[in-house]
Amino acid sequence: MRVMKAFILLIFITISLDAKEVNFVKLKEVGEFVKELSLSENLDKDELLKVFEDTKFLPKVLEIYNIPFNRYKTDASWKRYESKIITSKRVKQTHKFISKHLEVLKKAEDLYQVPKEYIATFIGIESHFGSNTGKFSVLNSLSSLAFFKNRKQKFFKNELRELFILASKKKIKPNSLKGSFAGAMGCVQQLPSVHNRYGVDFDNDGKKDMWDMDDCIGTIANFLHQNGWENGKTVAVKARYVGKRYRGFKTGYNQIYTIEFLKKQNITPIKKFPQTQASLLQLRGVSEDEIWLGAKNFQILTKYNNSTNYGMAIYQLSQRVMGLTL
Are residues 147 and 19 in the same domain? Predict the structure, then answer.
């Protein structure tokens, strides 16, 4: 997964890819990492160290994850996010993609019980239907983030570990893989851990290929299915509240309240909400906010990218593609 942060990507377009000289082999943390990985996964220690001899440090990648969280947060402006993603042009492109890959999408829809419109929307948002899969060395990016202090260092060290496991299983060199600055690869921007756990060989050619569209279709459908997607069930419902700017309780995809409690706070869904609990979602507009209630399916969308705006973009664009009104 790209961990597709729209505003971070806008910033990153202007960032230089120049690498700074760092000898990874001499880092104590690298030595400890190699020792643990060689023992737990039965990988050759010398071969692992040899990989790190040619690994490059990317300071600008590290910079992104050292931006203070309140400045980095991508949920600051829903309207800006919405205007770039939920467009008539993108709806048409998604319909075109569905027509082109209809047979495979229907196969995934039937097998995993995930609507083809959601599958197509993920691929469109993550990589513009496979046309933008990233040009960074995944090894360089993940190594820079795994061994130098940043707010997600533990996360990226695990992804680097998963990268070596992935490369070993596929019998390829870790430094041969290209992807996003955060280490996501292929047409649905899978992080190494996502591919290792959810990747499928959907075209039955004997390979789980992150750049093969059939495999990508199967993988994102499998991801949603395994995380508990309930086909035909509610994803999100808009709610009424008092005022134009919401300044009440904490909001976010992971801020869950009972419907009974929210109603006591004068937050009421505009139509029937079928679950007893919901995420309280705040979409920040130019002059006022929207409040939505996220059901279990919405929380599953954000497992692929931990962002309220991301989950809402997937939901609303899928609804548009389906020809449904919100």
Answer: yes
pLDDT tens digits for range 145-167: 999 999 999 999 999 999 999 99
264 within some domain: yes
Alpha-carbon distances, residue 23 vs 27, 203, 227 (angstroms): 7, 41, 40
Total of domains in the chain? 2
- The answer to whether the predicted template modeling score (pTM) of the entire model surpasses 0.85 is yes
Sign of CA dihedral 293, 298, 303, 306: negative
Tell which residue, 45, 62, 54, 61, has the closest CA to residue 21: 54
Indicate if 149 and 264 belong to the same structural domain: no
212 domain-assigned? no
Question: Are the C-beta atoms of 130 and 213 separated by less than 8 Å?
Answer: yes
User: Which residue segment(s) compose the domain that 23 sits in?
Assistant: 6-71+133-178
Q: What is the pLDDT of residues 73-87, one digit of tens each?
A: 545 689 888 999 999
With CA atoms as reference, report the closest residue to 179 among 156, 201, 198, 147.
156
We report the CATH number of the domain holding residue 47 as 1.10.8.350
Task: Please give the Cα distance from 257 to 135 (Å, whole number).
Answer: 41
Is the residue at 325 inside a domain?
Answer: no
Which among 2, 159, 303 is positioned nearest to 279, based on CA atoms? 303
Q: Sorting pLDDT into bands at 50, 70 and 90, what band is 3?
A: very low
Residues 174 and 246 in one domain: no
DSSP string for 296-313 = HHHHHHHHHS--HHHHHH
